[in-house]
């Protein structure tokens, strides 16, 4: 059974940093991509980072490019999202997910101006 558990969210001021972690277990060998998405109240879900396990390619949308970095520690079965220079518009619940559609329970990130 696939399980994803996020942690590391919190409240920071604009310009601050947070590092989110996603502890993964039961990931099937068919998984080729893992990533992070966010959802704010009343807004559409937005993917913010993805990493492809084959060659390690990474994807970021323009809204976070240069500020967010996705990484993984295979020895710890953990996915990370380093978020720097946070902006109030980054406020959302952040989820990690697999290409198979499994996601965690989410962690709240709140950025104040």
Q: What does this protein structure show overall?
A:
It is a single chain. The protein contains no helices and 10 strands. The chain has strands at 3-7, 10-13, 18-25, 33-39, 46-52, 58-59, 68-73, 78-83, 92-98, 107-112. The mean pLDDT is 95. The relative contact order is 0.32. The N and C termini lie far apart (40 Å). By secondary structure, the protein is an all-beta fold. 0% of the residues lie in helices and 51% in strands.
In short:
The protein has strands at 3-7, 10-13, 18-25, 33-39, 46-52, 58-59, 68-73, 78-83, 92-98, 107-112. It is an all-beta fold.
Can you tag this structure with a few keywords?
single chain, 113 residues, mainly beta, six-stranded mixed sheet, four-stranded antiparallel sheet, globular
Percent of residues in beta strands? over 45%
Q: How much is the radius of gyration in Å?
A: 13 Å
The end-to-end distance, rounded to whole angstroms, is 40 Å
Quote the average pLDDT: 95
The spatial strand order of the largest sheet comes to 2-10-9-4-5-6
Oligomeric organization of the protein chains = single chain
Please mark out the parts with pLDDT under 50 across 5 or more consecutive residues, or reply none.
Answer: none
SSE string: EEEEEEEEEE
- The proportion of residues forming helix, as a percent range, comes to under 10%
Total helical segments: 0
Question: Based on CA inertia axes, which overall geometry fits?
Answer: globular
List the helices and strands and how they pair.
Elements: E1 3-7, E2 10-13, E3 18-25, E4 33-39, E5 46-52, E6 58-59, E7 68-73, E8 78-83, E9 92-98, E10 107-112
Parallel strand pairs: 2-10
Antiparallel strand pairs: 1-3, 3-8, 4-5, 4-9, 5-6, 7-8, 9-10
């Amino acid at each position: 059974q696939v399980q994803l558990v996020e942690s590391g969210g919190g409240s920071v001021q604009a310009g601050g940093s947070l590092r989110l972690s996603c502890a993964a277990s039961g990931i099937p060998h068919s998984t080729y991509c893992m990533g992070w998405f966010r959802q704010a109240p009343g807004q559409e879900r937005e993917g913010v980072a993805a990493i492809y396990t084959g060659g390690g390619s990474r994807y970021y949308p323009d809204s976070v490019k240069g500020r967010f970095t996705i990484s993984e520690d295979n020895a710890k079965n953990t996915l990370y999202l380093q978020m720097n220079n946070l902006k109030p518009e980054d406020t959302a619940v952040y989820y990690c997910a697999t290409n198979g559609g499994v996601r965690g329970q989410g962690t709240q990130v709140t950025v104040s101006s």
